[in-house]
Write a structure and sequence with these properties.
The protein is mainly alpha-helical. The protein is 85% helix and 0% strand. The chain is built from twelve helices and no strands.
């Protein structure tokens, strides 16, 4: 596939992939434009992040995994394998999460909830660690999602520059809310705008890195089976993080209405980007 590629085509493909990845920084700037102690915005933002990740997982990532398996197996077996591997990713994340020390585990939420309700800012600051952990988890999950996405954009551009441009624009637009999902909890936890932007940037850079690694190393290995396994596991990881980390934190820092408003908004933004630009 790669024998006839010239340097200009390679640079265009890499440039489009880089453009798609760097757009996550826009979401980072949106996050740091809010006030750090704005708990309502934080609650909506965490719910928004959960909505983004849940919608991507169930509407885009898991169906892609099943599509890859469907090339190799019957439709029923493809659905069975894809769904099974999805839950493997979910369970794997549970076991990783269970290894996190209690003093930084966000599941210990009663004391945090008390401090929020009493508006004890000194005590609240002591419990920003869960938000930092949430931000890191989200960054890792989105980076894992972006890695094969970057490779897919790169390969699409090599086959058709027009197709690559369309994919890059679509991915860039839905990377903006992903950047917000990464940087908002980091900024709220640390107050460090540079660190928040850096995490958004790093998660987005998984796309051009995925393109290069795929080009240099993984191209011979990335068949339908490998891609199906990767997408299904990533989907499980993202759903676990949304349900176990983002939604409980959103409820703690806000209320039922701010959480559902955030979730609905996140899903709507991702739906629009996938329908009109996917």
């Amino acid at each position: 596939m790669y024998e006839d590629i010239n340097l200009s085509t390679f640079l265009i493909a890499f440039g489009l992939t880089f453009f798609a990845g760097i757009s996550s920084v826009i979401g980072g700037f949106i996050a740091i434009s809010s006030k750090r102690d704005n708990l309502q915005f934080l609650s909506i933002g965490l719910g928004f992040s959960a909505g983004v990740m849940l919608y991507i997982s169930f509407v885009e990532i898991l169906p892609k995994a099943i599509d890859e398996f469907n090339v190799l197996y019957t439709t029923q077996n493809a659905m069975l394998i894809g769904t099974g591997i999805f839950f493997v990713g979910f369970i794997l994340t549970y076991f990783i999460d269970s290894l996190v020390p209690d003093n930084i585990n966000p599941h210990h939420t009663q004391e945090i909830e008390h401090n929020i309700c009493s508006l004890d800012k000194t005590a609240l600051d002591k419990h920003q660690r869960p938000l930092r952990k949430i931000g890191i988890f989200v960054a890792l999950a989105i980076a894992l999602h972006n890695f094969p996405e970057g490779f897919a954009t790169f390969v699409a551009t090599l086959s058709s520059i027009e197709l690559g441009v369309d994919m890059a624009i679509a991915i860039a637009l839905h990377n903006i809310p992903e950047g917000l999902a990464v940087s908002l909890p980091i900024y709220s936890a640390t107050g460090d705008k540079k660190k928040a932007i850096w995490y958004a940037f790093a998660s987005g850079m998984a796309e051009p890195i995925g393109a290069l690694v795929g080009f240099l190393v993984l191209a011979p290995l990335l068949g339908n089976l490998t891609l199906g396994l990767s997408f299904a596991i990533i989907g499980g990881v993202m759903v676990y993080i949304s349900l176990d980390e983002l939604l409980p934190a959103s409820r703690l820092y806000g209320d039922d209405h701010t959480t559902i408003l955030g979730v609905g908004s996140g899903m709507a933004v991702m739906a629009i980007s996938l329908i009109y630009l996917g």
